[in-house]
Structures are given as structure tokens and as C-alpha cells.
């Protein structure tokens, strides 16, 4: 990649880093990406609603949409794009048609996380002035770099001798476990021969390429709302049914669900809220969490236990509880042939190619839904990792990526795409 | 009381019931009361900042003030009054000067609670159309009736042969345990010979008067914020320090603090909040609660245990915790002479006069601060209860008072005030 | 009382203090008391089975009886007495018949507690050489003094001009909440006109007499056994159902049952046991506890909550639970006439007579069963307390009584008995 | 193997199954094994103390030894053997010296578990009359079959053309994580060239041989005793410090220690005990548990968290806690050369040879101490598994092994031993 492209992609990544947006509200993000894509000039460009089926997981509320739209307007998003995504169907899909040949889909995700970014001067985005400008919002998982890489790959392949069709999917709402599911029903995957899903970071150093990560945990989210009975906390605590005590009993026992002898499981209560005043026995309290497992069965084991724990915690405190689990992502397997092909391409790029490092990754990814959909249609899929020497773990306030990963990933992915058409 | 006054006071109570406001934000409430007071024409009328010292417990945030002001404007509050209370110093004090004689202070409180009111058709305010118009706000402790009674007493005494000085204090922010404290430093109490604090309801039927309630529990509030470490809940839960687990361990153990053999204690965690996303080990979580005891010593016993429980819960989950207790209200004793005097006056009104029913009440009241301040200056104080056949407990969604208590309390209190000047 | 009697009673108390025995196993204790009683020569003397109906609460196991019998033999108990109590029906009842007159029953209890006694040199029994000789056994509630007082009263009344019938009941198994219940069905209470139940200590100083304690809490005991499923803790923890996790969830939530606004409640899990090995998920765990309340209703409130908490804790961990509550003791009221009579007698003895100090006592007593039985038959009952300057609380390792209470209580009780025959 | 040998070994296994003994108390077991060994006539036979250094992990108490000795006498153990093991150093080591050649050690373990065996008629030992005759004792991990296999291997090799030295170690106290440690310092391992540790079952079917299991979890045990303050649970619960509440808080939080992203961890509280009476706030309570990890680092992670949880749980309830961790077993790696050699030998026996099935095993083994010791001295080691179609998991009440594994393992191990001398 030439220095100019490189600078432009890094600039793009930093711009997105400054304005992280939560899933289904990537208004500025989608606008900025579309702007870059239009410069390159794909043969087709689908935006927002055009890449999704109608039904979505965890759609945003009207209030959330309104606030996000307002903020996006202030940052000068192209109003035409904004209109196309304003109902909360975000993301984009660019298509290059270069004659006969296979159809390759490169998938990157673009959403940020609801957390605050560090102000520590050792944190590069803080030191170099591209720290998040939004409170409680951060690109703490590298999706800003992903977006830049997606743009770069489109450009690199466009300038190459590739024969076939390249689709680059800028998928929204990955952190919500939501974005991939509605792309699956959109009609854009049926003709895909090879899917390359991409991630950077992974606690692996820059220069290392993992051609086929298989260790994603299956995941489901859940919500529970406890309903008790209010009472004056001073003169009649016995007349109450304490929703926060029920919630707390649940939290303790959820995290104490027995580990499973057959493989990794996870549980996390990530959000709680309840009560209205110190002198009222709280009538209502709710929590949100997630369960994961190395396989769907292991995830289901945790889910079954969690449902029982939630019910019994409510009963212990004479409360009712409403529990709902929502579809997350399954596990998925990479196709050996495709892994071998991308592995060979990476080896030509002076990268250290390593096999999957296994359990150490332990995250989840809704890309597994795309992989399964492509495989069901007869295509192959793999999940490619690029080390980026991240100084601290994903989802932490000082997460960052070595920007050298951007040109490296662009070049390597472009090689991979071209190798698949050979 | 004549039928007209009676109708007017009931109308006032219902109007306030429709628009309950949280402590330090009683903008509409203060405006409406001032309007009524001006009709009566007291000799002096202090509003807002004029009845408080500067330093306050639990002052409102700028955001809260702004939203409350906006809502008050929409409801047509007199802009002059609104200006005088707009910085969040609310409430009013009306003074009648009727020549030589003792100074008597009647104190009523005026704030609502942050909870939703029932829509049940058996709930009188719902059936008769004066249910709260504000979500998550309710007069669930009878302070709407208190305000009406305060207005009525001023009017009744103004029309009587009373000799001396009557002050009627419309105190804000009782539910926050905050309003009385800043009145204490205001200079309005030093000359008070007799203080009559008033409450209706108390799970006692209409027609019963308790001339000296002594069973208020001493109370303090507390807040605790747990700070842990965020981490990706899937691939590195071990790198997190889970603030919500710490909070939950605390909640369970706080409510399990041993009962005390020497008398009643209470603890309530009334509000919790924490975390940002299901896939992030939560970095931060906070709770708000209160401790009570039949005496200051018993309250302190619970407080000491609570502080230790909060610290150890943080330690268990490798978190830090910031704990703060804030001054609530002490216990207080009624003066026998005054109790006897008001008891005699009540007996003349066909009321059933009963002594304090003791522990069964079990609430707390920041009126105890006013009582102690008056007693320190050499005056006497008592806390007078008027039964009002409340159908369900204080602080519940179906709390209501029998409005017959309003004229009864006005007449009886006016008799008491006059008896004190005899 | 003369010095000789005094010395003898103190010697008796110290001898019993050295050999504390658990309820239904007071073999040495009963033997020693019978020996003293035979010296006095009552008109009738009932021992062991003769004072109980057959059915008992918490009878001892055969093993417990065998071990207790063996130990008693070693200490030289009269074999004839031992035979009469060997099946675990312990205690004695001595009767004086002195012509026409009322029947008065003085009731003392005689059992010890399953706890270790302090070796602290400041602890009088340790310093003076009459500390418990049995590990995990202690007279930590003054029943050793009670036995001595009972003997003293029989002797003092025998030597007096009393006219009527005096019964002195040496009741076993009070600490188990068991001894009184089977005396109730024995036929010894039907003719009692006045019952005086006795206790020393009470955190009140020597010289103070409380003629009618009414603040005993109603009490019930409970046991719960959790049954889960065992599993290898290393390779298949997911196949287990963890009985100790269920038990622990229960303990936390039991102690966190909301306090009651209407009066004092108590809950205590006093004994737990579970599991067999560190590498097996524990299949079974059990707990024993008790609930109390200022009234039967308050006790039942705690009991109902406890039952629900136990069930839900089992469910949370996929266990079964078997819960049983057993009859404890109700609350009881002293008869005013009798209280006045004993109060007058005490006043003649230079004692400081005080009314019931109320909630501060807060214990429970199965004497309330005897009181209720006597009242049902038309008699009167009261519970008399004698302060004994106990240095630390009842049921602690350094509990002790000022032995001066023994002659004082004997003399005062003898006066009371004689006063009732006047 | 001929039918007679086969019958004899199965009879031996069933005899041991009837009389399971806990570690360091395998008196009958050692006696019975020695009897069989003497029939075969090894060149040297070391018994009890002769195979251990003096210092031991988790030695038995005098009481435990006395009871075990008494029971062993009743079952007719040879008194000479009993004398040699009576101090609780159990187990035996038989040595065959067959000229020049390598020294091979086959290690089997012989202890049972403290749990009850199923009476279900579908459970083979119940149906066929060799169910455990001892309450709360069971061979629920196949060590009865191990002992029989050890005897069989000695016999088969004795009758073969093996050249070299064969040692068969009958190791005690494996379930306590204790037996291997004291063999390490005994001097019997220094000359070992090849160590074959053996286990049957493993949830794998009969006929499958795993030549080198590496997935044993590192393990440590721990004990914690909470010391609080006793108090009368009725009248002064506030004066107590509740050791059982502390214990319960610990149990909940121990099991909720965050899972680790780098691999498997385990924690189990297997035994609890505390308190003395329902009406005393419990002064003391203790627990025993274990922590495991896929590596020593992972185990240490859990251990560090556990120590903090135990301390903070004590603090929450104003108790002291005494925590001790004891050395368990490390993880270990099998030597490839040796694995290949035994693998080849097994293949000749019509066995299905499979590589280690990995995390699914998840147990721990103190054989890893022997493996490390042999490797430190320059020898090779492996851990060989034989499937035995166990119907339910290890450490459950219905665990059993297909006895066909006994001749198969004997023949295969004998082949392996001979192969090593070739």
C-alpha cells in the first residue's frame, strides 16, 4: 500500500475512533464510510435498510434514535445517508464486479461500546488527540480499524487484477449480537463462495495472522425484571417484597453456577438497575446479562441453570420475575480448504501465520451466523485474525491497536481475495 | 370550619396530589401554597431561600432543577414565586402577629415521593380524577393533606381571638431527610415557645388524635459506589473486578445485619444501578440506602455494621468502594406539658385521644431536628398525629387519606394554638 | 438463711457447674438434686419418667443416652436414681404438704448448654476451680444456680409456717424448648393455684427483683436437610447438585428476612453440617435454627418466610429440601394479682423491685407452656427475675452469676410462697 | 490371562470393593494385597512405613487410626501386616529383579472415598452382592480394580521373559492428594527408568487405551475456620459475631470466583460444619474445599481469589478466619518416547488406542508428583488410561467398572513392561 492510502486509512480510523456509536445507531460511522466508498466507486452500494431484513434483534428505542440522529446532524453527516439509516438500520455493503469468478465476501463490523475511554497520557488516543469525544462511548474492540480495513480492501482489490465479485460488508451492531442476524435474511449471502470475517487485536502481536479462528463461544443474552411490593422501609418493611434483595440473590447464584467439565462456560450480569428511593422497599429491579459456552450445548447448560436461579431468587423474596433470553450467536467452524488458502496467501506477506490459539480467545462473535449461512448455501467460510499488539484487553478503557495492522491487514486480505480467484 | 373553607382545602389537597414534587423541587407546590397564603394575608411571608440557611443536605443537581422548573412553568406557576425558589430552596413560612403572647410554630411538610401511583379504580384518587399526573411521582405519605391543613390553620387562627404569634412552616424535602436541617440554621426558630409538628394517616382511623408521638426512629442515609475493573466478559473475565457482584454481596449481607436485642433497627437498600453492557465485566455500580434505630445508638450500631459490610464486599471482589453516610434525623422526645395541653384541646373536639402507640409506627421524621432545636432554645415541642383511615400503608401505590381529616385537624390544631395563648 | 445453708447451696451450685449436662441427659444433675431433696425429706418425690407424659420434643438418641449414662456412672451417681432417669426422662418434682391452703409451684430448670467454658483467669469459675470439666458443655445460663435455689426454697418453706401445698419442679431440657411440654401432660399442674417460674441474671444487677417478666419471645425451632447430587468435583462438577451451595444461599437469605414493623423478630441458624470430601460435590447438607417473635403472629411471620427461603434456596441449586418446624414455646402473660403479691413480698426483703424491663430481655422460655397450662386450669402464673450482676451475656463463654443471688432468691421466694398462703 | 487368574483378580477386586478404606487407613486393603503378593513371591516386598518418608500430608488423627484398626482386626487382617501399617503409613511396593535391564515402575492406587454406595438393584455391586459393607465409604473411583490390576501385572511379568527390574507400587491416600508426596522422598524412585501410572474408567468404553493422559488439573486443598463471638440468639444477637453467616457468605462468593479466560478452573467447598445449638449465635464454623486449574498458574489464580474471599467474608461478619492451603498435586506432562512405546504395545493387544481426550477428563492426580520426580531423575513417565464403560461418573453412588478391564489392563501393561526391556 502506498503512503497516501495508508495515511488516509489511519486518518479514517482515528476519525471514527473519536465518534464511537452504539449498534443500530452508527449514523456518523455509516455516513463516513459511505463517503469513502463513493470515492472508490464500487459497482453497487447498499446502505442501511437495503442490507437487512425487517425483523431485528434488540432494535433501538425511538428516544435512542432521536438522540443519536441529533448528534449525528451536529457532526455534519451527509443528510441523504442519514435519511437512509435514520430508522436505525445501519451499515453498508459495497460490491465490485470484475467478470467471471468466485464471489468473495469480506466482513468487518463497525460499532462501538457503551463505556468511557481512558484519559491516561500513556493511552495513545489520548496522547495523540483522537480519544472519544462522547462520554460513555468508546471503540474498545477495534471496530474503528475494521472499518478502515474494509475500505482499504475494497480499494486494493479494485486496483488489482482480481476476477470475480467482491463484496465488502460493513456490519452494524455486532456488540449487541444483533447485526449479523438481519443480514442473513437479506439475500446478500446466497451467492457467496468464500466468506472472510476479520478481527484485529486478540492479545496477539502485530505481524501475526491467524487464518482460521474456531474458538468463539456460543452466546445468548438475557434480561430479568423482578417485581415485588413497595412498603415504607421504616414502619412496615414486612409488608414489602424486596426486588433488590431478589436481584442480589440472583446475581450471586448466577455467577456461582457450576463450571462444566466438558469445556468453557461463561456468565456475566453486566447491567443492573432498581428502586426509586431509600425509604421505600424497592418494588422493581432488573438485570441484563449473557451466557456463553464452548458449544451450543454448554451455553444451553448455563442458560437452563440461569433460568432456574432467577426464578428461585424471586421466590426467596416473594417477588415475581419476568425472564427473557434472546438469540445470540452460535459457535461455528472454519472450512479447512479456505483456511489453507488464506494461510498460503498470508505466508507470502511476511506474516507469522499461526493456527488458532484456542481457548485463550474465548470471545463470541455474531459473524458465526454469517459463516453458518454461507456454509448452508454451499460456500466456505473462515474467521481471520490479525495481531495488533493491543496494550490492554478488549473492552477495557485503555484498549488500543497498533495502527500498523491496518496496511498489513489490507494487503494480506487483498492477497487472499485475489488468491481465491486464481 | 364552614363548608366553603372545607371545600377549598380539599380542592387544594387534590390539586397538590395531582402534581407531586420531589424535595427541593417543590416549585408548583410552593407557588400554589403561597397563592393561598396571600389570600389570607399573613403579617409576614417568607418564601424559598428566606427560610433556609445556605448549606443543605442532598441538594438537587442542575439538571434536576432545570427539568423541574420547565415542568412548573408549563403548569402556570406565578413567575415571581418561581424565581424565588428556582435555585432549589423551596417551601414557605407564614407569620401572624396578634399582640402579646407566646410564639407557636405549626409545621407541615409538602414534598412527594419518587414512585408511581396506582390506577386501580378502587383507589380514590384514580376513581375521582386527581391521581398523579406525573410518572414515578406520588403523594404517598399525605403531605398534600399536610399543606392544606397548614393553610387551614393559618386561616382559622387568623379569624380567632388568638393572642401571640403564630408561625406556619411549609417545610420542603422531608422525605430526603433534608428540609428541616437548613431551617434550623435560618433564625426562624429561636423565639418559638411551642412547636407542633403534624402528621396524618399512621394506619390509625379518622377521629383519633395522638398528642405526642415519640416512636420515631433515628435515621441516616448512605451511598456506596463500587469501582472494579472492566474486562471482556467472554475472553478475559479473570481480568475484571466485578462491581455488580460486589454490590450484590453487600446487599445480601446488609439486610442480614443481626437484629439488636435492645430495640428496633432497620436497613433498606432502596436504589441500585451499575454496569453498561452485558459483554463487559461491570466496572462500576452504586447503591443508596438507609439505616434506622429506635435510638441514635441503635442506628449507629447498624451504620457501623453497614460500613464494614460494604468494605468487605468490595474486598471480596477486588473492588474499591466509596461509602458516605449523610446526616438524617435523630430521635426526639415530646414535652409532657405541651402534650398535656394539646391533649386537653383535642379532647374538647370530640376526638379520641390516645397515647403514642409506640413501636408500631416505626417511621422517621426530620421534624425531630426542629423539635430538638426548639428545645435547645428553651421551648417545648410535640409531634401530633391525626388518624386518617389510610387504606394501605404509607409509601405504597394505593396510599390515600380520608379527607375528613383535613377539617378535623385544622379545627383541632387551631384549638390547640389558642389554648397555648390562654 | 443461715451461713450453713448458704454454703451448702453454693457448694451445690458449683458442683453442678462442674458437670453441665444437655437436656434429657441431666443424669448427674438429677441424681445430685435428688440426694439433696431426700435430706430435706419432702412428702412426695417424683423422679424422671414420673413427671413427664410419654411423648417428648427432641428426645435424645440411643447413642447420646449411652454416652451420658457412662459418664454419669463414672461420677458416682446413685444407681437407683440413674435407673429411674436412664431412658432420658430427667428432672424431679418435690412436694410439701402442709395442710389446707393453696397449691404453689416453684419451677426451676436444670440443663446446660453445648458450648465451651472460658479458661480466662478473670472468669470466676476458672479462678475458683469449678469450671466445667466437660468439653463443649457449660452452664452458661444460670440453671446451676436455679437448681440450688429450688433446693433452698423447699428447705426454707419446710421450716416455715406455710399452710398449703408447695411443689418445686426441677425441669429438664429447657434449652431444647422441650422439657416443659411433657410436664404439661403429666397431671402435676392441674391443681396448681399459683406458678412462680424463676430466672437469674438477665443483665440486671444483684438485688433487683422483677416480679413479672412478660417480654419472652415466642419461639419455634427448625431443621432443614438439602439433598443434591454428588459428582466428581474436578471432572464433572456440572453433574452435581451442590447441597452446600444451597445451604449457604439459605443461610444468607434467612438472616435477611425483613424486620417486622410491629415488633421484635429473631432468626438464627445455629448449626450446620454437610459434605464428605473436598473432591466430591456435596450431596447432603443440613442446618438447624430457630425463629422468634414478640408475639405468636410475629414468630409465624418469620417462620413462613423461612420456609419459603429454604425451598427456593434448594431450587436455586437443583436440590431437594426437607424442612421441619417443631413446637417451641408461645409467649405468655403474667397475672397482675400474682405479680402484685410477689412484688409486695419482695419489697419486704430490701430488694429493688422493678417492673419488666421489656424488650431488652428478648429471650424465650418454655416456662410459658407451664404458665399457659396453669392459667387454662384457672390458676395464676408469673415469671420472676432475680438480677445477678452477670459479667457477660447469657450463652457466652464467660457468663457467670453473682452467687449472692442464691440466698437472696431463696429467701424472697420463700416469702412469696408464704405470702400466697396467708 | 488364564481363566483362573482372571477369576482370582475379579474376586480380589470384589473383596476390596466390599471394604473401602479412606487414605492412610487402608489396613484391610494393604493386608489383602500383601497376602496376594506373597503368593506370587516378589524378590522384595516393602510394606507401610518402608515406602514412605516420615513427613506426610493430611495424616490421620489418633482416633481415626484407632477406629480403623479395630474394624480391620474384626475382618481378620494378618496381625503382622497390621502392625507394620498400624501407625497409618499404608500401601506396599513389590519388586521383581530379573537381571540386567531397565527399571520399570507400575503405579496403582488403593484408597476409597467417604461416601455411601447405591443400593439400586441396577447397580452391579448391589445386585451381585459385593456392595460396600461400610456406611459412608465406597470405592467410587475404581481403585479396587487398580489394586487387582497391580497384582495381576506382577504375576504376569513374573511369568514372562522380562529382563530388568519391575516395581509395582500400591499407593495409598491418592484421594487425599497425599500418598504420592511421601513416596517421593522414600528412595524408591531414583532408579526408575520408566513410570507407568494407571487409571481405569474415565467415562471411556472398555477396550479403549489412552497411552498418555496429560489433562490432569493442578490441585490444592484448603481449610478455613471462622471464629466469631457467641451470644444468646434471642436477647442479644447484636453481641454475637455469626461464624455461620461468615461461612455462608464465603461459600457463595468462592463458587462465584470469575472463570478464567485461559483455561479450566475449579473450586469446590466439599465439607462444612459449625455451631453447637440453635439458640446460640455460632462462635465457630469451618469449611474444607479445593481449587484446581489446567495449569499451576490457573490453580494459583483461584487460590489467590479464594484467600481474599475467605478473609472478606470473615470481616463482613466481624469474625476472624484462619485459612490454610495444603500442597495438592501439580500438572505433569507425559514423555513422548514412552507414550509411543506403550502405544505400540497396546496396539498389539487389539485395543483401540486413542490420544488424550483432553479437557473432558478434568480430574487431578497425585501421580503427577511421581511423574515429576522420575523425570527429575532422568527417567520417563506416562499416565495410561483404560476405558471401563463406567455407567455413571467417578465419585457418584452408582459408579462401577466393567470388570473386563482387569484382564485387559493386566495383559496390556505386561506387554508394555516387556516392550520396555526389549
TrEMBL record, chains A, B, C, D:
Mn(2+) binds at residues 141, 143, 175, 199, 395. Keywords: Manganese, Metal-binding. Residues 221-316 form the Peptidase M20 dimerisation domain. The keyword Metal-binding applies. InterPro entries: Amidohydrolase (IPR017439), Bact_exopeptidase_dim_dom (IPR036264), Peptidase_M20 (IPR002933), Peptidase_M20/M20A_hydrolases (IPR052030), Peptidase_M20_dimer (IPR011650). Its cofactor is Mn(2+). The keyword Manganese applies. The Mn(2+) ion enhances activity. Pfam families: M20_dimer (PF07687), Peptidase_M20 (PF01546). PANTHER family: PEPTIDASE M20, PEPTIDASE M20 DIMERISATION DOMAIN-CONTAINING PROTEIN. This is Amidohydrolase. It comes from Halorubrum rubrum.
Amino acid at each position: 500500500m502506498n503512503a497516501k492510502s495508508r495515511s488516509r486509512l489511519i486518518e479514517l480510523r482515528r476519525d471514527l475512533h473519536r465518534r464511537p456509536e452504539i449498534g443500530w445507531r452508527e449514523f456518523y460511522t455509516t455516513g463516513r464510510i459511505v463517503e469513502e466508498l463513493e470515492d472508490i466507486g464500487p459497482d453497487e452500494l447498499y446502505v442501511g435498510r437495503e442490507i437487512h431484513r425487517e425483523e431485528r434483534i434488540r432494535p433501538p428505542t425511538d428516544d435512542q434514535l432521536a438522540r443519536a440522529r441529533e448528534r449525528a446532524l451536529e457532526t455534519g453527516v451527509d443528510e441523504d445517508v442519514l435519511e437512509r439509516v435514520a430508522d436505525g438500520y445501519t451499515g453498508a455493503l459495497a460490491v465490485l464486479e470484475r467478470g467471471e469468478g468466485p464471489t468473495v465476501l469480506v466482513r468487518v463490523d463497525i460499532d462501538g461500546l457503551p463505556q468511557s475511554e481512558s484519559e491516561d497520557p500513556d493511552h495513545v488516543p489520548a496522547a495523540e488527540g483522537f480519544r472519544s469525544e462522547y462520554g460513555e462511548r468508546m471503540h474498545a474492540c477495534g471496530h474503528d480499524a475494521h472499518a478502515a480495513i474494509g475500505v482499504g480492501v475494497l480499494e486494493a482489490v479494485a486496483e488489482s487484477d482480481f476476477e470475480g465479485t467482491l463484496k465488502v460488508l460493513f456490519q452494524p451492531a455486532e456488540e449487541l449480537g444483533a447485526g449479523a442476524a438481519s443480514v442473513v435474511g437479506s439475500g446478500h449471502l446466497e451467492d457467496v463462495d468464500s466468506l472472510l470475517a476479520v478481527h484485529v487485536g486478540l492479545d496477539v502481536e502485530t505481524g501475526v495472522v491467524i487464518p482460521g479462528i474456531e474458538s468463539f463461544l456460543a452466546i445468548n443474552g438475557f434480561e430479568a425484571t423482578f417485581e415485588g411490593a413497595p412498603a415504607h422501609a421504616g414502619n412496615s418493611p414486612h409488608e414489602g417484597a424486596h426486588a433488590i434483595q431478589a436481584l442480589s440473590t440472583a446475581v450471586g447464584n448466577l455467577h456461582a453456577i457450576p463450571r462444566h467439565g466438558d469445556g468453557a462456560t461463561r456468565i456475566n450480569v453486566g447491567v443492573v438497575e432498581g428502586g426509586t428511593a431509600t425509604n421505600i422497599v424497592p418494588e422493581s429491579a432488573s438485570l441484563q446479562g449473557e451466557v456463553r459456552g464452548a458449544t451450543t450445548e454448554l451455553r444451553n447448560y448455563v442458560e437452563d441453570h440461569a433460568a432456574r436461579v432467577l426464578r428461585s431468587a424471586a421466590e426467596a423474596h416473594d417477588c415475581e420475575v419476568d425472564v427473557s433470553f434472546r438469540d445470540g450467536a452460535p459457535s461455528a467452524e472454519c472450512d479447512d480448504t479456505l483456511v489453507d488458502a488464506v494461510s498460503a496467501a498470508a505466508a507470502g506477506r511476511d506474516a507469522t501465520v499461526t493456527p488458532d490459539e484456542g481457548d485463550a480467545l474465548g470471545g463470541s462473535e455474531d459473524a458465526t451466523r454469517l459463516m453458518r449461512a454461507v456454509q448452508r448455501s454451499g460456500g466456505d467460510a473462515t474467521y481471520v485474525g490479525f495481531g495488533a499488539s493491543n496494550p490492554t484487553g478488549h473492552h477495557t478503557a485503555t484498549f488500543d491497536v497498533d495502527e500498523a495492522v491496518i496496511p498489513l491487514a489490507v494487503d494480506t486480505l487483498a492477497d487472499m481475495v485475489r488468491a481465491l480467484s486464481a
